[in-house]
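Q: Sequence in, structure out?
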Amino acid sequence: MTSIKSVLVLLGLGFTACAVGPDFQRPAGVLPATWGAGKQAAAAAAADPAALVSWWRRFHDPKLNALVEQAVEANLDVRQAAARLRQARAERQAATAPFWPWLSASGSEQQSDVGGSGPGAGNYRSYRGGLSAAWELDVFGGKRRTLESANARLAASAAALDATRLSMAAEVALTYCQLRSIQDQLVVARRNLGTQQKSANITHERRGAGFASDLDVVNSDALVANTKAQLPRLETNARQTAHALAVLLARPPADLLGLLADSSPVPTASVAVPAGIPSDLLRRRPDIRSAEANAHAATARIGVAVADLFPKFSLTGSLSQQSAKLTDWLSPTARVSGFGPSFNWALFQGGSIQANIRVQEALRDEALLAYRKTVLVALQEVEDAMIAGANELKRRASLTEAVAANRRAVELSTELYTAGQTDFINVLSAQRSLLLSESEFTLSNLALASDVIALYKALGGGW
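A: Exactly. Output:
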């Protein structure tokens, strides 16, 4: 009766005792009430956060949509992250196993030979088989802390998979926009090359008629040659960027050349992204969620280490059969059984348990600092993308005016030169300015698309 009472007491302790070690609390970081990017952020805060889901579709480019959606499934980095998530799930399942009793079976046949001619000499056989079971009670919560840590690591792995998908979607979108920008630059270079070639033809004709100098001819030919020299470099960049895009989709480098051969403008999307308030990042950004879960896991592991300071209580039992003859193996007289509680307490291990506690506390502190840094970097990325997008809009508006003015300057200077009313140097200057402003305009389109992509990524869009 006393033994049964002891067992019941141990069971009660195992199911009602509190887990040792600290409980996790999210660090109280200093988050601003609003974004610092001015009125644009305030307006964006009222927008629908649902727009962050499948954010790449806001560029209204079917090819971009298809490429991103393929990449977030096929990309090798994403698949590695998915494998790590499966690993975390298995580890979490393994962490539940110690809550259950374990049962094992054993059996043996032994033969011994006693030499000599005395009374004990001869061959002997013995047969043994049985079952043994044990159940370690989680009195001080070490197992619960282990499971808590495994749950947190599983959450961190799930968030890390989301972060990898988000990064991959952003990288595919950015690489696609870079390819379209290079193709735009090729269009600009070829169009300007055609205009410059016409001007060169005019200078050749005028020299033949005695109205232009050799210097005009040489200058016009040099401008044509310089513009031609840009084409091979741009074509190489376009091909290499298409290769990079294919590899992001886990496909051979040349696989997308046919799909992306036709030039297309850089896709555009509104810079007015639904930003919400800074505290939204804590639940939206997968890297922040992953860092928080890692800090939670590290905190729980302190409890696992602290539990080693306390005794471990178990219920053990065994049932075995042992006999000298196989025919007697199942007889009641061959049966041996036992059941009862036990405990094990590591009273002295040279300070290793205390040292492990300090190690886990330091790891927890490191994880908390990593979390705080992740939050600060996230805030910076949002602020940077907001201000960059707002200012790039202003820059593109000025470049639009510059392109229009330079095109008119080329037309006027060419007309005046053909009529003999101005020097060819004015034509050259206007054509150079036009090429420069149109090239800058295409780069501004890329910069604006990049800023929008960076802002969606910084806000944790999609997952």
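Residues 101-137+311-344 form a domain with the Outer membrane efflux proteins (OEP) fold (CATH 2.20.200.10).
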